[in-house]
């Protein structure tokens, strides 16, 4: 060893290797993972542990004029006068009972190999396999194990990263496992994506496969629930009150607008009044006239003149001056019908009144003669021959008004007559619908 000094003049060291020990000791198993003890290295050619010559590999292995002597597993530093005399190998002489070398036996006139494995004349461990060789035998470890001295040690394959995801070492082998959303490929090491959508993913509507997982999506009109799998209906009607003009009806995956009786849907959200008088969906008799109003219709008699008035045309009644009762009544009454929506904004023009014939020099005034006890309307005179009926406040329906709008004409040119003031009335029937459309 380095630094050891022996003061002798002559030292003889006999290194003896017994042949019997070399043959009975099974050679080290050929294994890529075999480790050698200190002072030896693995020889790929012979597949055995080979002694390292430290005298050649270590520069200046011995100091102080000492001489380096290599031996098995190490080296010695001795005086230069020392010498190493190897002991001669003992000759293998056949015995009288067995004239053949060790590991052989005589058969007839020749020596044949002894199969120590079949005769159970080996020292292999129970977990090892005995393999017969010429003149000897060897002990081999099972797959997944490596031989260290006389023992078989499990090989941890997981440290070599054989698996793509997870590796589980087991005695003599290993197994690969994949993360959720993946499965083992045919080589039992790689992991490939699993298409959960084709394998029955629990999406209630649409399924989209992604790398290692999947996503659930919903059809239009639905939204994904908190579990990420179930689709629940979206109540569109609860989002806004302006989706429909009248009423919104929620349906699975959608919504629809409905209109009240007497109206029909125009487009997808607006309601339009049905003109029952034009469509023939009324029950007026031949002696009646159908008048369409918002959401319904009205049947009125063709002769709407009451005493002392007499009918002179379809919608005009005249009070003859020959009748005494006509002296305090308007000369003529014209019947009109109109329909307005509920809660109409204020002010809003409702109806325009215009004189059809005016005497030269006559001065005309307009007023509401009757039917507006609550003051819901007022007259706005535009000029001498026309005026406008205006809502004074918002009105709500359903409701009906019968207003007598009177035009009083004063003509000073006819002052020679005892009565130079005349009046005409317009009987206006107003139907206020129950809705704002």
TrEMBL record:
Keywords: Calcium, Disulfide bond, EGF-like domain, Extracellular matrix, Glycoprotein, Repeat, Secreted, Signal. PROSITE patterns: ASX_HYDROXYL, EGF_2, EGF_3, EGF_CA. SMART domains: EGF, EGF_CA. Disulfide bonds join 197-207. It is found in: Secreted, Extracellular space, Extracellular matrix. GO terms for biological process: epithelial cell differentiation; system development. Belongs to the fibulin family. This is EGF-like domain-containing protein. It comes from Champsocephalus esox.
């Amino acid at each position: 060893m380095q630094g050891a000094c022996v003061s002798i003049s002559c030292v003889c060291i006999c290194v003896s290797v017994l042949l019997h020990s070399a043959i009975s000791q099974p050679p080290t198993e050929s294994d890529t993972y075999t480790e050698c003890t200190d002072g030896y290295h693995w020889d790929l050619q012979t597949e055995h542990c080979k002694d390292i010559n430290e005298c050649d590999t270590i520069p200046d292995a011995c100091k102080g004029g000492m001489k380096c002597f290599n031996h098995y597993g190490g080296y010695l530093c001795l005086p230069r006068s020392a010498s190493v005399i190897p002991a001669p190998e003992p000759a293998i002489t056949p015995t009288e009972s067995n004239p053949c070398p060790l590991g052989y036996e005589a058969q007839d006139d020749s020596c044949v190999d002894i199969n120590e494995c079949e005769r159970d004349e080996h020292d292999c461990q129970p977990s090892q396999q005995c393999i017969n060789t010429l003149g000897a035998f060897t002990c081999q470890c099972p797959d997944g194990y490596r031989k260290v001295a006389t023992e078989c040690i499990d090989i941890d394959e997981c440290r070599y990263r054989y698996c793509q995801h997870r590796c589980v070492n087991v005695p003599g082998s290993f197994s690969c496992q994949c993360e959720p959303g993946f499965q083992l490929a045919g080589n039992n090491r790689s992991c490939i994506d699993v298409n959960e959508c084709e394998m029955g993913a629990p999406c209630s509507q649409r399924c989209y496969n992604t790398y290692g997982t999947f996503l659930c999506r919903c059809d239009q009109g639905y939204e994904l629930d908190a579990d990420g799998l179930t689709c629940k209906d979206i109540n569109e009607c609860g989002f806004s009150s302006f989706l429909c003009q009248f009423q919104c009806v929620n349906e699975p995956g959608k919504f629809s607008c409905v209109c009240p009786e007497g109206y029909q849907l125009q487009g997808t959200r607006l309601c339009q009044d049905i003109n029952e008088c034009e469509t023939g969906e009324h029950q007026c008799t031949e002696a009646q006239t159908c008048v369409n109003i918002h959401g319904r219709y009205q049947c009125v008699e063709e002769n709407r003149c009451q005493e002392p008035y007499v009918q002179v045309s379809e919608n005009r009644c005249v009070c003859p001056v020959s009748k005494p009762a006509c002296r305090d009544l308007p000369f003529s009454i014209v019947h009109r019908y109109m329909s307005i929506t509920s809660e109409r904004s204020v002010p809003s023009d409702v109806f325009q009144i215009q004189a059809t014939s005016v005497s030269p020099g006559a001065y005309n005034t307009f007023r509401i003669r009757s039917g507006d006890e609550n003051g819901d309307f007022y007259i706005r005179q535009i000029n001498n021959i026309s005026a406008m009926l205006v809502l004074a406040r918002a009105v709500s329906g359903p409701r009906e008004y019968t207003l007598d709008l009177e035009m009083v004409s004063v003509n000073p040119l006819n002052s020679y007559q005892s009565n130079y003031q005349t009046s005409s009335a317009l009987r206006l029937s107003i139907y206020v619908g129950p809705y704002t459309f």
